[in-house]
Amino acid sequence: AMVLLSKPSFDQFPLIKTCKSTFFFPGIPVIDLSKPDAKTLLVKACEEFGFFKVINHGVPMDFVSRLESEAVKFFSLPQSEKERRGPPDPFGYGNRRIGSNGDVGWIEYLLFNINPETIYQSSLSIFRENPEMFCSAVNDYISAVRKMAFQVLELLAEGLMIQPRNVFSRLLMDDKSDSFFRLNHYPPCPELQALSGQNLIGFGEHTDPHIISILRSNNASGLQISLKDGSWVSVPPDQTSFFINVGDSLQVMTNGRFKSVRHRVLANSFKSRVSMIYFGGPPLSERIVPLAALMEEGEESLYKEFTWCEYKKTAYKSRLAENRLGHFLRK
Ligand code: GA4
């Protein structure tokens, strides 16, 4: 069903940048998780793009649509109601400001730090009228997506031929795993498109600091990724599949073999874009270092040693577009 969402006005945030949309890139790797070649294709996709799409992922579409409709309901509330659920740090509603260092975008969102206790806590403060409904939609969705994330990470370990199978997945399975979840709403910007043929930048270019990010969106385009040669391409939307990003931490754990993909989102000219992303991270105390089993004879780590806590602190002090791993390069 078409849902009309309230639109914030342009004038308050003249700093939001614009950009022309590009053609749909046909070369995004599509990986069928039910096929025996999945592990090999996953490794290849992480090396070449740091980005891929998965199908036959086992996440019930019912969970997806329930959460999407809860999200749409939330974003349709009057602005003053939504603002009362802010600020976004450590969890809650955010509008146009991203992080706390001056980044802005054509976006509103809900951010959650997820471990079993905090989901209910944040639901209580965000969904005052009906926290149970919202909370169960978030919980069902996240537990199904987490399972799929474990499967993908285990297939990656198999594809890399390293033991144990759970070298990556155990970090997300840990009770202390520092993971995030966000619901984004990018209102359309038809006026600007008509005036200039440009789109507003919804979420500026960046890489994700965590291990892995699992994204799902409705059928509105907007996501773009940067290829190895630095060019930007648009990802064709697909509301029944999931898109997966390699994060900075996985790049380090593979000593640069997997690429943490730079990506950004342009607001769609005509449609509201609603996306939901799970960011799987390790426990705060975890040392993020290349896995010994992946190192060739005499190979050295490309990165200075750090814990996830240290990396996260630096990340949260940085601007969105910064090359955060650059600060941790050894040479
Ligand atoms: C990018 C990935 C996740 O959305 C996020 C973002 C976080 C935020 O929105 O608060 C950050 C950004 C993200 C990286 C640099 C810092 C922190 C905004 C920002 C400018 C939740 C995350 O973990 O890092």
TrEMBL record:
Coiled-coil regions listed: none
Domain of life: Eukaryota
Keyword Membrane annotated: no
Matching PROSITE patterns: FE2OG_OXY
A GO MF label: metal ion binding
Pfam families named in the record: 2OG-FeII_Oxy, DIOX_N
Residue ranges occupied by any Fe2OG dioxygenase domain in the UniProt entry: 176-282
Enzyme Commission identifier(s): 1.14.11.13
Catalytic activity, reaction form: gibberellin A1 + 2-oxoglutarate + O2 = gibberellin A8 + succinate + CO2
Keyword Metal-binding: yes
SUPFAM superfamilies per the UniProt record, alphabetical: Clavaminate synthase-like (SSF51197)
Keywords assigned: Dioxygenase, Iron, Metal-binding, Oxidoreductase
Family, similarity comment: Belongs to the iron/ascorbate-dependent oxidoreductase family. GA2OX subfamily.
Name the UniProt record assigns to this protein: gibberellin 2beta-dioxygenase
